[in-house]
Amino acid sequence: MAGDRTVTTPNALPMTALWWQTCATYQVYPRSFQDTNGDGIGDLKGIEQRLEYLEALGVDAIWISPIYPSPMADFGYDITDYCGVDPRFGTLADFDELLAQAHARGLKVLLDFVPNHTSDRHPWFAESRSSRDNPKRDWYLWRDPAPDGGPPNNWISDFGGSAWAWDAPTGQYYYHAFLKEQADLNWRNPAVQAAMFDVMRFWFDRGVDGFRIDVLWHMVKAADFPDNPPNPAYQPEMGEMHRVLQLNSTDQPEVLGIAADMRAIADSYDAKGQGDRVLIGEIYLPVDRLMRYYGRERAGVHLPFNFQLIDAPWEARSLAKLITEYEAALPPGGWPNWVLGNHDRSRVATKRGHAQALVAAMLLLTLRGTPTLYYGDELGLSDVAIPAALVQDPRELREPGRGLGRDPVRTPMPWDESRNAGFTAGRPWLPLNTDWPTRNAARMADEPHSILTLYRRLLAVRRAHLALSIGDFALLDAEGDVFAYERRHNAERLIVALNLGARPHRLQLPGWASNCRLLLSTLPGEARAGDAAMLLRGNEGVILTSD
Ligand code: GLC
User: Fold this and answer.
1) Which of 214, 217, 241, 342 is the pocket-test mutation for ligand 1 (most atoms within 8 Å of CB)?
2) Measured from the CB, is residue 344 less than 6 Å from ligand 1?
């Protein structure tokens, strides 16, 4: 394939690095990226308008959160037609145009695939709930009440409350892992599998380069629906879903077969000479269980999302441990990936602070594997406080005040200093970040030391130095708040040293004395190298080369 490069893997076997292994992916939350029709909601034409920005940023692929027709109970993760585009976002023709324009710029396009559940207004569910003997009854998960008339078991929705909704006309409950407006499909039913695999082919045939698969680990539930065990560590502020451990409602062995079937569909396109397509699974599980989604006898998803950096303690030794353990746990041929944020989790600038957001950017873009960036993180956007009257997210509305709401991380992209930061000519669906007059893309692109400029430089350095994406990874000895590692590919050797604290640190670099050169620092001014040691300033990250 164009763009693929022959490389040497850590165990010195020659292989071809595929586009999804060297690429940096950028997540676009379409409601909040760019509005072109003044309704205050972003759209596909808006994304198309901003491809130039994404190309200049230096990312290689975009993943677009759901754009399908939806009542928007969960902002597009409740779908009524898997093969269409919601009019709020545009038309199928707009999508085709966006795809063509992205491809013309060398950008891959990934869509969000939401196979676990449909909207309760999907025609399949309307049929399914119409009577107990409807042919589609078994497309969803219907159960009789418990003997006391209550829900069939103790499973709790991820958005709080029982995960079972009562349907009086047919006298049964249906299961919903999220809202009651998001009914879970029965993936043990071969007809459901066939229909959803057709959806994948529909988009692959149009030319999409891959899917991010929503809540992949939720897709199959224990066949006889036993209760989930109580969670001994439960605290109310965690959210009600954590009252039980989701042992029986998620991560069942049969889901791995489904992931393998999906992979076979993706792989069939490369086999036909139509290019590699990639599958990225959204999976929140401990590392040992996460690794199984790479597949064993049969290949699973290419990239089971690795979310560990989002929650990790921001401390040098813990990060070193987490990263080496993850690397060690990868199965043969399993390709690593890293994420700092997404549309469900607090932003990195809020969690780590503005000074460390720069260091975090360097970490994300210099670890071995495929990084995914969340829109706006390249501007250092923070979580935006949403006044109660403007709250949109059902997660916040159902369990208010616990900090579970996701609106703060979904606010409009601030583009420039014009009205509404250039996001919309209308009223933005969520408020902008209050600092948008200075924290916006146009302004920061002109500032030599903005976080945006750093992201651009990092992405350029990463492209120019294959060692950063695919080279071997080895930890270096470091003390205190410093976390340092070496990336090596063929003759090239790079060092990344990150100061996770505010105090300066002297970093010993034995064997790196005379020929050591600074490739990039997160801070302005000259970093000082030489004499087999270098002084790292507080909150500074550097990439060094030995050529
Ligand atoms: C995933 C999505 C999230 C959504 C949920 C239900 O976790 O990322 O936004 O609410 O699935 O589809």
Assistant:
1) 214
2) yes
**How many structural domains does the chain have?**
3
The last residue of a domain, from among 140, 157, 184? 184
Does the active-site annotation cover 282? Answer: yes
77 lines ligand 1 (CB under 6 A): yes
CA of 343 to the centre of ligand 1 (A): 9
Which of 154, 184, 214 is at the close of a domain? 184
CATH code, 296: 3.20.20.80
Same domain, 320 and 244: yes
CA of 214 to the centre of ligand 1 (A): 6
Q: How many angstroms is it from 423 CA to the middle of ligand 1?
A: 24
Marked catalytic residue, from 282, 393, 472, 486: 282
Structural domain of 523: 472-545
CA pair distance 345, 374, nearest whole angstrom? 10
Ligand 1 mean position, distance from CA 75 (Å):
9
Whether 392 and 429 share a structural domain: yes
Q: Domain check: are 236 and 369 in the same one?
A: yes
With a 6 Å cutoff on the Cβ, whether 472 touches ligand 1 is: no
Question: Which ranges of 346-450 does DSSP label H, i.e. alpha helix?
Answer: 348-352, 354-364, 394-398, 441-445
Please write the tens of the pLDDT for every residue from 278-322: 999 999 999 999 999 999 999 999 999 999 999 999 999 999 999
Write out the two tokens for 319. 């990060």
Give the bridge partners for 166, in sequence order. 173
What's the chain's average pLDDT? 95
Half-sphere exposure of 452 (CA within 13 A, CB side): 21
* CA of 77, closest atom in ligand 1: 12
Verify that 314 and 277 share a domain, yes or no: yes
Residues paired with 475 in a beta bridge: 485
Angle at 216 between CA 212 and CA 217, to 5 degrees: 150
The encoded tokens of residue 52 equal: 């130039």
pLDDT tens, position by position, 36-89: 999 999 999 999 999 999 999 999 999 999 999 999 999 999 999 999 999 999
Task: Establish if 157 belongs to a structural domain.
Answer: yes
Residues 308 and 381 in one domain: yes
Residue 405 token pair: 């709401």
To the query of whether residue 214 is one of the catalytic residues in this protein, the response is yes
Instruction: Give a yes or no: residue 370 inside a domain.
Output: yes
d(CA 545, CA 532): 13
- Out of 94, 158, 209, 214, pick the active-site residue: 214
Co-location of 378 and 328 in the same domain: yes
344 Cα nearest atom in ligand 1: 9
